[in-house]
Specification:
single chain; 879 residues; mainly beta; five-stranded mixed sheet; 72 strands; 44% strand; elongated
């Protein structure tokens, strides 16, 4: 009800009557406060920083998106600008307040995926390989399946680009992903040395004396460069050089490409055969008289090449003739044969000469020939009948066979040779015959086992032999059966040399007997089989272990591992990052007598480790300059730390001094960072622009005394922005100007500053300490008096100096009041001294003033009892 009454109403000529009205109190609409939230990045869950509506009355909030979806705290929104967040507020007091609603708009920025082009390598002059990439930075449980399309991956390197490193540039291409933008990191294409292709065919045979030329030193390569030729002994055969005779001589070539940047030096070899040249040995013509001994025959050698002369020839040709002492007049061939002739780089051909025998008067004479050995041709020493006149000799064996000069008899004892001499001068000489007996001993064949070899642990090979000593043009076909060839070495015999012994076995050959020599079986050390495959790639920081240093061998021994530079990497060693690093193993068998040391090698790729550069979160107040951003680098391996990193990451943000409250990305990028053995990946941080805290200036005030009211010299805090101050004591009491504090030291005065701009500035507080000295009460001993010999009276005092409306009731206890005067003190003035006694008063201290005790003259007390009656006449006396 709204009740009407007279109040101050007045109207001439009127009276008033009053009718009540009605005041309707309707439901109030709660006041909702919900600031526009700062932008967030896709993947960051909604939290109290976004779902932070407040109301001026108690109640509950229900949040929804524009599509009606309810986003709980922790929900992640899809990327997109101006997304509407709605809130419905239900007051706890639904009688007096209505429901209320509000909405704000939030921008959800796209998260960033990092597309890193993968590093690859190829050889110079090869086509570029297909490039690949790796995508990282997924949030909200997403994976590569949210990405469609493909990045563009290009390089400036073409098939002709020189050896070196070339960037593989990653670009957007057809990449697309809802909720994500893309950042790109280049990879590296390493162009390594190419491999020159050398073409060089085995040249046709030369003959000693022919110089090397373009038909032999004709290697070619698929790239320009120079060739250097050498023999197996390291000598350099220039064009025009003449090689010694020999089969399968090795010619080596080293090719040095003109482009030493892109191609390594390469080698090749061919085999060339140099046939010996031919020297012609011509028997010089000679003559003698019939019946005379043959002269010493001579020869002439021709056909030298390459500036050679007779000095290259050793030994002598065999120069023979069929003419004997009894040979008839005529011309006889002087046959030239090898004899002991020898000449490096040459073979021999022979030209016969002629021996002219002139007539004499022959005398036939034929002594018994000496025994011969099978293979020795019949000649002048067997068919040696002579005559002193010209004629002819005809020789036969006992069986009628006619053995010509140079014939070879089969082995056998007591063979008869018969000669018939028919002189030319049949008038002067008759035909005559004679015979002799000749023994033909068997020739000797030497059976020499061929040297053989095998490795330790292998069975003995089948032994072979070489039979030498054949005569009369015989060949090994005249021999039947085989020699017995044995060795003392068994399959378990240690490495070393063992005798191969030859014996007759089943050997047989007409006209021959056998002698035997021994040979050597060399058991060489076996080469252990070492197995070691290229290990899988590792990442820098992974120590070498059994997965890399895992060579095995077929026999017992130990392994020693080294790098190409000779460093020995023990298990647990960490290699620097790099491609195609060579690991070498040397296997030393336990049994070094029977096994050789073996080496093997593999190649290993050590990829750089990845350091994660995380921009550290930072914050600042609204209106302040951005702080100096910092980062944290993690992912170090091999016990390393920041000392291996040089340079600094680039740390930037879009937030400026006047940016609104909210979160801003601190973007980390490479900057000048570098670290051997590492690459970098980057994670952004967040710069939170929060409400600024106002700067309150409030100095400790000067000391005051109890009773002095607080004023502008104490409650004088100031701030750098507009707002209001509220002062309190430590116990929460609110202080206003005029308030009097209790006495005490270091009393805390608090101030709470509420800025007018509560969006960008937070409330702030400060405090000072103030000393409130106690006020002083004056305790004055009241003056007193007594007479001599009386006891001192009870002393009293008067307390003055109360402030702040206080009175004596605040004082407890009593002052001590004393004097030097005692009951026997003579009359006079004595001080009454005031002291603290048990006095106590909050907020006060005491000052004391003495009083005065006046001891006055005493009045003696006369005692005189009424005397007993006397009778007149009695005198006064003591009684």
């Amino acid at each position: 009800s709204i009740t009407a009454a007279q109040g101050t109403l007045s109207a001439a000529n009127y009276n008033f009557t009053f009718v009540n009205g009605t005041l309707t109190v309707s439901q109030a609409v709660p006041v909702l406060t919900w600031g526009v939230p700062a932008d967030i990045i896709f993947g960051k869950a909604l939290s109290a920083a976004q779902l932070d509506a407040t109301a001026n009355v108690p109640g509950t909030f229900s949040y929804t998106l524009a599509d009606g979806t309810t986003p709980a705290s922790g929900a992640v929104l899809q990327a997109g600008p101006n997304q509407t967040l709605r809130v419905a507020f239900t007051p706890a007091d639904t009688v007096d307040y209505t429901a209320a609603a509000a909405q704000v708009e939030i921008n959800v920025n796209r998260a960033t995926l990092t597309v890193k082009a993968n590093d690859v390598s190829r050889k110079y002059a090869s086509s570029n390989p297909a490039f690949t990439d790796a995508i990282s930075g997924f949030v909200n449980g997403d994976g590569p399946s949210v990405v469609s399309g493909a990045a563009s991956l290009t390089t400036t390197a073409n098939i002709a680009s020189p050896v070196g490193a070339y960037p593989i540039t990653a670009g957007l291409g057809t990449l697309n992903a809802a909720d994500y933008d893309f950042a790109f990191q280049d990879g590296v294409l390493s162009v390594t040395l190419g491999a020159p292709v050398i073409a060089w065919n085995n040249p046709a045979n030369l003959t000693y004396g022919q110089s090397l030329g373009v038909a032999q030193l004709n290697a070619s390569a698929n790239v320009p460069g120079t060739f250097t030729y050498t023999l197996a002994d390291g000598k350099t055969p220039a064009a025009g050089a003449v090689l010694n005779a020999g089969q399968n001589q090795t010619l080596n070539v080293t090719f040095t490409p003109n482009d030493a940047t892109d191609y390594p030096t390469a080698t090749a070899q061919v085999q060339i055969a140099v046939d010996p040249a031919t020297l012609t040995v011509a028997a010089n013509d000679a003559s003698r008289a019939y019946g005379a001994a043959n002269p010493a025959f001579t020869d002439a050698i021709s056909g030298f090449v390459n500036g050679d002369s007779l000095g290259v020839v050793s030994g002598a040709a065999s120069l023979t003739t069929t003419a004997t002492l009894s040979s008839a007049v005529g011309n006889y061939t002087i046959s030239a044969a090898q004899g002991t002739l020898s000449a490096a780089n040459y073979t021999f051909s022979f030209v016969s000469g002629s021996l002219a025998v002139t007539q004499v008067a022959p005398v036939v004479s034929w002594g018994a020939p000496a025994d011969i050995i099978y293979g020795a041709a019949l000649g002048g020493s067997q068919l040696g009948a002579i005559a002193n006149v010209p004629g002819s000799f005809s020789y036969t064996l006992a069986d009628g066979t006619t053995p010509a000069e140079g014939a070879v008899l089969h082995a056998g004892p007591n063979q008869t040779l018969i000669v018939t001499f028919t002189p030319t001068d049949a008038v002067d000489y008759s035909i005559a015959t004679a015979q002799v007996v000749i023994n033909v001993a068997p020739a000797t064949l030497t059976v020499t086992p061929n040297d053989a070899s095998r490795v330790y642990g292998a069975a003995n090979p089948a032994f072979a032999d070489t039979i030498s000593g054949f005569v009369n043009g015989d060949s090994p076909s005249v021999v039947s059966g085989g020699a017995s060839l044995i060795s003392s070495a068994s399959i378990v015999s240690a490495a070393g040399n063992y005798s191969i012994t030859a014996a007759l076995g089943t050997l047989n050959a007409a006209d021959y007997v056998f002698v035997f020599e021994s040979a050597t079986l060399t058991v060489t050390r076996a080469t252990p089989a070492v197995s070691w495959i290229n290990p899988t790639d590792i990442i820098y920081g992974h120590a070498l272990g059994g997965a890399q240093l895992d060579a095995t061998a077929g026999v017992q021994g130990m392994f020693s591992y080294t790098l190409a530079d000779g460093v020995t990497p023990a298990a647990g060693a960490v290699l620097n990052a790099g491609q195609n690093q060579t690991l070498i193993v040397t296997f030393t068998p336990t049994d070094t007598i029977n096994y050789t040391t073996v080496t093997a090698l593999v190649e290993i790729n050590v990829a750089p480790a990845v350091l994660i550069v995380t921009a550290s979160d930072a914050s600042r107040g609204y209106g302040a300059a951005n702080p100096i951003f910092a980062d944290a680098i993690s992912g170090f391996v091999n016990g390393e730390g920041l000392g291996v990193v040089s340079g600094a990451a680039s740390l930037t943000t879009t937030a400026s001094t006047n940016s609104a409250l909210g979160d801003y990305a601190i973007t980390a990028a490479l900057g000048t960072l570098t670290a051997a053995n590492y690459t970098f990946s980057f994670q952004n941080g967040t710069l939170t622009v929060a409400q600024a805290t106002p700067v309150i200036t409030w100095s400790n005030p000067a000391d005051i005394s109890y009773g002095n009211a607080l004023g502008g010299s104490q409650l004088d805090a100031t701030a750098n922005v507009a707002g209001t101050f509220s002062y309190t004591l430590a116990d929460g009491t609110t202080l206003a100007s005029g308030v009097v504090l209790q006495a005490g030291l270091n009393q805390t005065l608090n101030v709470v500053f509420t800025p007018l701009d509560t969006t960008d500035y937070a409330a702030a507080a400060a405090q000072v300490a103030i000393n409130v000295a106690p006020a002083t009460l004056t305790v004055k001993a009241n003056d007193a008096s007594r007479i001599y010999a009386a006891s001192n009276p009870t002393f009293t005092d008067t307390i003055s100096g109360f402030v702040n409306g206080d009175g004596p009731s605040i004082v407890s206890g009593a002052a001590s009041l004393s004097t030097t005067a005692n009951i026997a003190s003579p009359a006079g003035v004595y001080p009454i001294t005031a002291g603290l006694g048990t006095l106590s008063a909050a907020n006060y201290k005491f000052d004391f003033q003495d009083g005065t005790l006046n001891v006055g003259l005493a009045a003696p007390v006369l005692t005189w009892n009424k005397p007993a009656d006397i009778t007149y006449g009695q005198p006064l006396g003591a009684g």
